[in-house]
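User: Hey, my collaborator sent me this sequence without any context and asked if I could get a structure. I don't really work with proteins. Can you help?
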Amino acid sequence: MKCAGREGAAGSDRVASNRAVVNRLRMPAAFACAFLLASAGLAVRCEASDSCADNLTPQTVIVDRFEARDAAVADVLEALVLEAEKATRRAYRPNFIIVGDAIGRMRVSLDLTMAPLSEALDRIGALPGVQVTYRPNQTVIFSLKQG
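Assistant: No problem. I've predicted the 3D structure and written it out in structure-token form, which is a compact way to encode the shape of the chain:
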């Protein structure tokens, strides 16, 4: 897949400054291009049968800044959906399923900067008794651990 964007001088600076993030996360080249262009606020165009959106996952969507202090998990997940849509210019909308009301009422604090969406989800999955399951169809399920 090849992604291309239209950028001016300011866009070039933003792309260059985000290369360090791509290197730190060891992001695959196909995702790195789309991330660099989208994070700089540039138009992203895909030239292939697959769209860039088909390659977006919780591991490849980068959240610029997200903070939650002692917030209910259900509220945090709702906010993360909006952050993912914002980060991808509405190209990606994650599907989160909470199995059981107890998980949605649990409290969590997150402070993320330039981190994959999956980092926030894994931190929620690290709450006592919570299990996070990533499904191939981009659905993420939060359930109570069995046993």
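In plain terms: The two ends are 43 Å apart (CA to CA). You can pass these tokens on to your collaborator as they are.
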